[in-house]
Amino acid sequence: SPSDPDLVARARAAKEQLGDRVFVLGHHYQRDEVIQFADVTGDSFKLARDAAARPGAEYIVFCGVHFMAESADILTTDDQRVILPDLAAGCSMADMATAEQVAEAWDVLTEAGVADTTVPVSYMNSSADIKAFTGRHGGTICTSSNAERALRWAFEQGEKVLFLPDQHLGRNTAVRDLGMSLDDCVVYNPHKPGGGLTADQLRDAKMILWRGHCSVHGRFSLESVEDVRARVPGVNVLVHPECRHEVVAAADYVGSTEYIINTLEAAPAGSKWAIGTELNLVRRLANRYAAEGKEIVFLDRTVCFCSTMNRIDLPHLVWALEALAAGRTVNRITVDPETEKYAKAALEQMLALP
Ligand code: 13P
Ligand code: SF4
């Protein structure tokens, strides 16, 4: 739907008044009405790097979700303020791994005698506490665009990986990119004593996957892939690695949001694509490339928007920008220094991956 012209004018005026003091980052899953005000757009890896590369900006307004704003705060200088226009923009996947649960899991691994040889690899989509845990235990953060490199690095440091919190990204990367078998992976369930695993299972596994998933991508099914192939002959199926393993195994291409965009950009006119990722991005790409004769459809018509990404809307963005322009800092996201120190080590390890 077209944005309210009054709000567009107000956002523009507030941004203009703030000038170089504000820098607006927009994740690819954000609404069109918000993306139009982003100084840069990107996947979570690119945005983390972009946030770190803006030491001049007093305010970083993060149009994305809470864990991304936390990561931006960790990677920016202390005097820079990171603003999340709606504090309720969380991530259900990140909420699936709490600091207490992960500390308990590490105790379970220690009891089983495998903690010494296990390297934690945590997906960007996790709280700063989980990133700090990762840093404390010599691990790395990864995103969907560098998960393979992160895992290869981790297996040079140790024998096993504890992958948090997205079981699908962990499994898909281990099997597709590192050639492991499904039997090399076990799932640690934080709601069961001992994670629901025996010490023998922990000793035999190479990948210990946390039982977390994305509530949006987890809903694409093998059936959606089969249906779209029947409906659109010659279609290329392109999905995000947060999708379930059987969906990824049935797809033609797999990659992060940035990869999806680049692939469609390079696709020839007349090609047909079914995309399994968040709907705001798929709609934007379908509109952008329709004129070039690329047919882009959403992989499953019953899957909907990421509700927390969508919480950042134009009214919230206008409210935040106008407050900053009036000299009031609102919705600042901060990470305490002790957490920041270790979380930063894990994030910097990611940025240093070969
Ligand atoms: P990427 O943009 O890194 O592919 O992340 C997808 C996602 O789910 C972000 O919340
Ligand atoms: Fe979290 Fe999934 Fe939404 Fe990304 S798309 S913010 S992983 S719930």
From TrEMBL:
The keyword 4Fe-4S applies. This is Quinolinate synthase. Keywords: 4Fe-4S, Cytoplasm, Iron, Iron-sulfur, Metal-binding, Pyridine nucleotide biosynthesis, Transferase. It catalyses: iminosuccinate + dihydroxyacetone phosphate = quinolinate + phosphate + 2 H2O + H(+). [4Fe-4S] cluster binds at residues 91, 214, 306. It is found in: Cytoplasm. HAMAP family: NadA_type3. Belongs to the quinolinate synthase family. Type 3 subfamily. Pathway: Cofactor biosynthesis; NAD(+) biosynthesis; quinolinate from iminoaspartate: step 1/1. Iminosuccinate binds at residues 27, 44, 123-125, 144, 240-242, 257. It comes from Streptomyces carpaticus. Catalyzes the condensation of iminoaspartate with dihydroxyacetone phosphate to form quinolinate. Its EC number is 2.5.1.72. Pfam families: NadA. Binds 1 [4Fe-4S] cluster per subunit. One of its GO terms (molecular function) is transferase activity. SUPFAM superfamilies: NadA-like. The lineage of its organism: Bacteria, Bacillati, Actinomycetota, Actinomycetes, Kitasatosporales. Gene3D superfamilies: NadA-like. Its main location: cytoplasm.
